[in-house]
Amino acid sequence: MLYRTALPAAVLVLALNAGCQRQFTYDNYARIEPHTDSMDDVLHFIGKPQADLGDQWYYEDEEDHYQARIFFDEEGRVIGKEFMDGKSGRWEGHDPRGDEKPAGEDREKSTRTRRIDDD
Q: Which of 24, 44, 96, 117 is the most exposed place for a label (fewest CB within 10 A)?
């Protein structure tokens, strides 16, 4: 009797998981082309936003620690996009209506670690 109920339940769970792929991924975000794609294209590529502010949409993936903003013009066309990865610190793109990056030197900060083993 258990076999008759467990097998259909397992098949159902596998089918539901197969259809629940995450849309908001970096690869799907990278498919968005400024000055070419529309709001409908963005919905198709990365799904519904967590926040719709009219001329910009906000996406977040708490599990993988990344966020994105997509900027639109008055006609609903993508005019810019921004991606932030909290794990790696990568930040690409910017708000096209915002200030430009200040001139200057880019610097990296690095740290060193030393392992001390107990003998």
A: 117
